[in-house]
Write a structure and sequence with these properties.
heterodimer; A: alpha+beta; Mth169, Chain: A; B: alpha/beta; nine-stranded mixed beta sheet; two-stranded antiparallel ribbon; 5 helices; 22% helix
Chain lengths: 90, 233
């Protein structure tokens, strides 16, 4: 078993109104960044967990997303392994 | 009517609901979210508030509470369930109602009276209203913007499952009358089987003249009268 560091990105589904992104977009434009075309805000969950392999770590995080971390009506998700720590027994 | 008011850590409209049920002659009981079993209840009510501090998404963590398995079973057995505000959000997260409630388009927490049009006066929660009746009821939420995929929205319209809509003084569902950006001014919807109602506005806060409106009373008298005529289940 190794310990993996994951970043789980929860993204607002394309095509749905993202009021937070819209507000930031208009703030950026009013500060002079008129070339900004679109802004959407999601969230990132930083997680460490034990798994046999990187694939296993991703698989279990994906199942967490389906069950709890993301709302399938409004959000998509993406899981990335960003680091592997020494296993406890090594 | 023996009614269960399910409370979660962070519920804050539980006593208002309890009182509303009492006011229409019902028999309310608090049921803590870690308890199990809803046998012997005629109706189940999920109050407003901020269960689990709205962490992750409003209602997302409450939906994992032990009692929710019983709430789902109660719904599947045809028992009436009313979710108000955070209760509506929990019902959506639990899959008992379609769609989701996202951040208000205004990005503000909206706390004020709104006008609602009764779109369905034939549900177990609305028989004491007239079709098209206009109600004045308060809202208080940051995430009441009803969203779903196009297909679901068409089904809701096609099957007349929108029970309340935000309207103006003329009874028109205008953009200005919409406090949160909800699709087609949706304020409350009912499940396909008709026994689960979710709504963002707070009828339990419009029960006595001293509160500014008594327009919420009908929701509770409608529900209670079902059990007076039909007898205890």
């Amino acid at each position: 078993m190794s310990q993996f560091r994951l970043e789980i990105r929860i993204k607002p589904r394309q095509g749905l109104l993202n009021p937070e992104g819209k507000a930031i977009h208009s703030a950026l434009r009013s500060l002079g960044w008129g070339h900004v075309e679109d802004v959407r805000v999601g969230k990132t969950i930083y997680m460490e967990l034990e798994a046999d392999s990187a694939d296993g770590a991703v698989e279990s995080a994906e199942s967490m997303c389906r069950k709890l971390l993301a709302n399938p009506v409004t959000e998509d998700f993406e899981v990335a392994v960003v680091g592997e720590l020494e296993s406890a027994g090594a | 009517m023996r009614a269960a008011v399910v409370t979660f850590p962070g519920s804050n409209c539980d006593y208002d609901l309890y009182k509303a049920i009492e006011l229409v002659g019902g028999d309310p009981h608090f049921v803590w979210h870690r308890e199990r079993g809803l046998g012997g209840y005629d109706a189940v009510l999920l109050p407003g508030g901020f269960s689990y501090g709205d962490y992750l998404r409003a209602g997302a963590i409450a939906r994992m509470s032990p009692i929710m398995e019983d709430v789902v079973a109660f719904a599947n057995a045809g028992g009436p369930i009313l979710g108000i505000c955070n209760g509506f959000q929990i019902l959506c997260e639990a899959g008992l109602l379609p769609g989701a409630l996202v951040r208000n388009a205004s990005l503000r927490f909206e706390s004020r009276d709104v006008l609602l049009r009764v779109e369905r006066a034939d549900t177990v929660f609305t028989t004491d209203y007239d079709q098209g009746q206009i109600l004045r009821v308060p809202i208080a939420h940051g995430e009441g913007n009803y969203e779903a995929d196009r297909e679901t929205l068409e089904v809701l319209d096609g099957e007349d499952r929108v029970v309340f809509r935000y309207v103006d003084a003329d009874g028109e569902a205008t953009e200005d009358a919409n406090p949160n950006g909800s699709w087609h001014n949706i304020a409350g919807i009912v499940s396909a089987s008709g026994n689960v109602l979710g709504m963002m506005p707070h009828p339990e806060r419009a029960m006595e003249a001293v509160l500014g409106s008594t327009d919420g009373v009908g929701v509770f008298t409608s529900l209670a009268s079902t059990f007076v005529t039909a007898g205890a289940r």
